[in-house]
Amino acid sequence: MEHVTNAVAADAATDSGSNESAAPGLQRPARALLGWMHTDAAILVLNSNQQTPGTLEQREIVRRCQSAVASRDEGVDQDCVIEDAPIALEGYVEELRRNPAALVYLAQGFEVKVAHIDRICGFQPVIFTDSASSRVGTHDPDDLAGIAEVSLPRMQPQAIRAQFDPLRRCWIVASANPNLRILSQVALRVSNAADGSLRLDDNGVPVLGFAVAIGESFMQVGRFQGRYYLRDGYHRALGFLLQGITRVPVFVRDVPVAENLAPAGMLPEQSYLGTRPPQLRDYFDDAVSRDVTLPASQKLIVIEGLEPSLAS
Fold first, then answer.
1. What is the dihedral of CA 114, 116, 117, 118, to 10 degrees?
2. Which of 55-59, 72-76, 159-163, 178-182 has the lowest mean pLDDT?
């Protein structure tokens, strides 16, 4: 756990875009790109992240997936994989510019484009399939504005649930969405008090705390060495593809260095930067990927009131 003054934030979920609730011991269905994994990593995934040697059958599954990748032609066809946003999206993009979170990306050089996501390359080893469909809902493939509400959401506060533990005198906020975070410290002040005095609650005492929210996440595509990769939004991408939706509004920009392309914990770099990288449609291809079950995870924030004694 990481202490932030009197707040403790424990990140137990690193899977981008996951938002299903989790419970101890819960296993969730997923698809794993076994063909691009090291053998030991693939065996670990097949065994639900349990450290076991793996069966002969499992090792044969991994071998066949790896062989299927090795037998592919080199290179990927990404001609016309990115389109300019059509006129029908102009109004939506203007509204998106009013979202402070989106403005951060736009200031970094991201542009709203339409991506043919089935041919976008990927590097996330597994995607939880139970949350893929729930993340996107049901959409008309021709309704790009409706699809953009999911892929590039406008400012829409997401509800969070908090529990108070009276014994520890702490608030506990939990979500399987890894974008849950402490945004800022909060001291409720009288609006025009020059002396900075604190506003009092109903009991006549000051109120101090932290602002907690689920940060907005946008589907992002990065162009590196002439190839397009999905940087964020894997569960939504899989959910769209399950509906047969391949054209999705996304943020796109060039990525100058590999270190800025993918976070830690992804596929081996040489596998997705090499000559036979996985594409998002490969998550559905049993020749190179398989169904697995993996432990669910949660992001926790604990805000605890402490009264330490300090030596004078």
1. 170
2. 178-182
Extents of the domains making up the chain: 67-156+219-295
Locate 186 and state its tokens.
């909060």
pLDDT digits 0-9 by tens, 102-137: 998 999 999 999 999 999 999 999 999 887 777 788
Residue 76 has pLDDT above 80, yes or no: yes
Using CA atoms, how far apart are residues 114 and 86, in angstroms rounded to an integer?
A: 8
pLDDT over 70, % of the chain: 82
The residue count for the chain: 312
Average pLDDT over residues 191-196: 46
Q: The pTM is what? A: 0.77
Sheet containing 2-4: give its strands across.
2-4, 7-11, 299-304, 170-175, 162-165
